[in-house]
Write a structure and sequence with these properties.
The complex is a heterodimer of chains A (301) and B (310). By secondary structure, chain A is an all-alpha fold. Helix content of chain A is 73%, strand content 0%. Chain A has one domain: Orthogonal Bundle (MetI-like fold). Chain A has helices at 2-15, 24-55, 61-65, 79-110, 116-128, 133-147, 155-179, 183-191, 196-223, 228-233, 253-261, 266-297. In chain A, helix 4 (79-110) packs across helix 11 and helix 6 (133-147) packs across helix 7. The longest helix of chain A has 32 residues, at 24-55. Chain A is globular. Chain B is mostly helical and 310 residues long. Chain B has helices at 6-9, 29-66, 69-72, 82-113, 116-131, 134-153, 163-187, 191-199, 204-215, 217-233, 236-241, 259-267, 276-309. The two termini of chain B are 37 Å apart. The chains are: A mainly alpha (301), B mainly alpha (310).
Amino acid sequence: MSAATTARDVTEAFTARRSKDRSTPSLVFLGLLWFSLFFGVIVLLVLIVSTILEGAGRFDMELLTNYGSTVDTEHTGFRAGILGTVWLMVFTALFAVPLGIAAALYLEEFADKERWWNRFIEVNLQNLAAVPSIVYGLLAVAVMALIGFEETGIVLGGALALALLILPVVIITTREAVRAVPQEIRHGSLALGATQWQTTWRQTLPSAIPGIATGTILGLSRAIGEAAPLVVIGLAGSVRFDPEGVLSPITALPMQIYSLTSRPQEELQTAASAAIIVLLVLILALNGMAIFIRNKFQRSW
Amino acid sequence: MTTPSITTAGPSGGTGLPVAPNLRRRPRPGETVIRTILMLSALISVLITVGILVALVRPVLDFFAEIPFGEFFATEGTYAVVPLVTGTLMVTAIALLVSVPLGLGAAMYLSEYASRRARKVLKPTVELLAGIPSVVYGFFALSFVTPTLLQDILGMEIGFTNALAAGLVLGVMVIPTIATLSEDAMSAVPQALRQGSLAMGANRMQTTIRVVFPAALSGISAAVVLGMSRAIGETMIVALAAGGQKNLSADPREGMQAMTGFIAQTAGGENPVGSTEYNSLFAVGLLLFTMTLVLNVISISFVRRFRQEY
């Protein structure tokens, strides 16, 4: 580690303030690199500003407290979508987090990495993380049919699809967090006579919790904006009641946004823009929470 | 009990600590139960892959029992998949035209020019782009890129939904995937190569383009292939902005339905479960899964190669 950074510093000292880097092609090249770096940021700014401008007329409480309406378009709201999204996130986390942590602990602490099946699980995980989200929707439809549900646009179906989607992310980030716990802590515990599971449960896992929490929240912040698997599982675009249980039909914020875009009414487009801002604020809050946890609790060993 | 000794169970830290004595453990049934439960959880990830295949293949068999292969792999007709594939490829090509140069440029700056402190701020900023939900990007393509950017500012004659706007926005979304992976690959190139090049009198630009870039090529290829897989599999942008009509045209200004867009639009409709229309969803889904699987496997093997090189 320290050797690598030193080498980098040497290169940097080497290249500092050399006249060769001031030639025209060099400066043009550097300009292009700057452009590619900031292009995305510019697009992001345009996206946010144009959406805020378009939705400015609808930043009121009714946006949050009213149900969706295609008749009373000026007072349509996203109550059902916001509540549905919250319910979905809770159940997605309940499904994905324990399973993800268990799988990650096995792969990091118990599995023999030389065995071909453990290596196969690794490659499989990497691949699953890149499977299109819409395919998880198709999988969830099949699983729901297998457990015997005809109506799939419910809390259980949506949460199942999203949990399958983020499971690889949770496993991969948890593994990184567990791997960052130094070996000395495990050795110390084992030397005192603890079994492997006692060591994992009482020493390794608690030390890795901040990293796991950060990874889980980042996984959820990916799930919160997903609409594709929810479309496939058959969530409604608009629901006019609050979710009441796991079997209750629901909608979600991204689903409501998706269904509003096909509507011709100007007021509904405005409402969709305002809803996008609500969704972005929710995602920002989740990310902020992840950064807060990382900075506050994460130890560097 | 085939369990290895306790010291080899965890990841080998390589910290140079003396190897602990190889103690034989006494059997602990509780530990075995827990170990088995954890292993089953890990196996669920394999089960998901198998589940995806089974979930897709079963309706597809029903589908091909009614519709002959030729009608599916045809250029026109209700069940024709070729226009969907060309639609996907068109949107993906536009997206790559945007994201490959910009993603590589950003990666080169981060890896070769940015100071450590600047990189700490700039890298998460680039990654922000990946955190925006795709339905938001889709809405942006519909409400800003097509009407304001393409029609008003650039004065193009272009439809409400078109492949160009969808591809451009999709490209922006893929930038972080390509940028972060390529940056990892370029940062992994040993400093000695750069120093050698600089000592020979090359400047930073020449070093970046002629030394670092070729040395990191397998990692960069992995990034581009993964970006392509992301673009092919992305749904909401194309479902919203690329259009809902099958179109074999090569003109990006026209609307054309992509594979993922077809799945979303058909699933959102009112087709009864088990009907041929419904099963056609799964046929397109299986083709999509296969395409992305091949790309992901290629990408993973490229990554492994660059890991081995350095």
